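I have been asked to look over a protein record a colleague put together. This is what I was given:
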Amino acid sequence: MERYLIINADDYGMSLSANEAVEHLFNEGFITSTTLMTPCPWAEDAIYRAKHNKRMRVGLHLTFNAEYDRYKWGPVTRDKPVRSLLDDNGYFFKEVKPLLDKAEPEDIRAEMEAQYFFMVKRGLEPTHADNHMGSLYGLYGRSFIKETFEFLSRHGLNFRLPRSLDGFGRVPDDIAGQLSHITATADNMGIGLPDHIYTHPNALTPQDTYETLRDYYLNLIRNARPGITELFLHPAKETDELKAICPEWQKRVWEYRLMLDDIVIKTIEAEGIKLVGWTDAPFGKSTK
């Protein structure tokens, strides 16, 4: 079977540092996709860049959490209250579990629609969708997969959810047991899913260097399984803005550097892997 690789930059629109890095990587690097956080302050700038750069392919990063202590955002929904999604200060919750303890399905639905139309009304059709911090999957409490699939089917969007948990990391047993049913439901609804999802899931340690991070990702690429794999990262330029927002800023800076490193494309080519985006990956087709 053929091996196809999508390289996605998450958190587009989160900051100017991210926006500049993502646009540069579409022009000079190896990413084939990005996903936009529409609730964030730099979303308008992100859309402007994408509309004026034909190389950029932008999906929707469905966002229901605001994880930073000193940098916050809230819902895109304006025409009705979505109070069950908000903390005591009127922002999205910092962590996923408090969100899932309180969120009402109708508010999740309304906010997904608002985030989608935020892009569409500004002239940017999303290539696909994924989910910030895994809040909809049921990894930390209630699942909103049903509401998510209904949303995706309504708008004809594919979704980041792996058909296989190989390399994905630890998930609750009940979710693992339901995966075949979930993927069959997606198939029946015409929602394309990747076969595998890879990333670097951990915070950097004091022993980590750019080279250790690079080698981790290169190992993931070399060991990519047959089918469609998405590798996702969070690249951003090193700026005072990023350092003020993000405690893990160094990892994002190194991931930006990685996507400009020729060893990445040389490894992909040496492995005979086909680099694709969400719009040209063969979802729903044989990958033999």
Notes: Strands lie at 3-12, 33-36, 58-62, 129-131, 196-198, 227-233, 274-275. The first helix runs from residue 16 to 28. The chain has a mean pLDDT of 95.
